[in-house]
Specification:
With 177 residues, the protein is an all-alpha fold. The protein is built from eight helices and no strands. The protein folds into two domains: 34 residues; 134 residues, no CATH class. Helix 3 crosses helix 4.
């Protein structure tokens, strides 16, 4: 009987060791798993902006005309700026480089879109008579995702995280007194 209990105690100790080992690896893996929403958001929003920026760059005259019709000031300067911001900003978001500043700039373009091109649909989406809800207004959905990226950053699976890690590894030069 005593040998049997000893075996059980040993078995429990072995199980506890396996649980501790699992938890150790889980703690190491969890930060990477927590980065998954940021990666998916960056890829989805970044690709969307890359595509719209690419379309705007191919038809700048049409975009200038559209911006002018919306009453956007300095449309001939704003259209190429926005087109390039969306194109290159989309690429930067997808690779996770300069995520916070790019997301901030792109969120400003979404605010402008909500105040101009999407204004009527956006305001109507908050009423019960509308067939759309606010989340169906693309500029609003993108704005929410972009603001989340401004606050939370790119996550561990990004060039932002890699560059931050590399910069921390470099020691500042010693200053002699």
């Amino acid at each position: 009987m005593g040998e049997r209990n000893l075996g059980r105690r040993h078995d429990i100790g072995g199980r506890m060791q396996k649980i501790r080992l699992f938890l150790t690896y889980w703690d190491r893996f969890l930060p990477w798993l927590q980065s998954l929403p940021a990666v998916l958001t960056r890829l989805m929003v970044g690709f969307g902006f890359y595509m719209t920026g690419s379309g705007k760059l191919k038809n700048l005259d049409g975009v200038i005309e559209f911006f002018t019709s919306l009453g956007v000031p300095y449309a001939k300067y704003q259209a190429p700026f926005v087109a390039h911001l969306e194109y290159y900003g989309g690429i930067l978001l997808m690779i996770g480089l300069l995520t916070r500043p790019v997301s901030f700039l792109l969120s400003a373009t979404m605010v402008v879109a909500l105040l101009t091109a999407d204004k009527a649909d956006f305001l109507a989406s908050w009423t019960q008579e509308s067939e759309k809800v606010p989340a169906e207004i693309t500029a609003f959905a993108y704005l929410v995702f972009l603001l989340w990226l401004v606050v939370s950053g790119a996550g561990l699976l990004s060039l932002d995280a890699l560059s931050s890690k590399l910069l921390r590894l470099r020691k500042p030069p010693e200053v002699e007194a």
